Amino acid sequence: MQRILVVDDNDVNRLLAVMSLGNATRTIDEAPGGRQALTLLAANRYDCVLLDISMPEMSGYEVCRRIREDPSLAGLRVVAYTAHALDSEHRKILESGFDGVLTKPVDISAFERIITA
Question: What's the pLDDT at 25?
Answer without folding.
Answer: 84
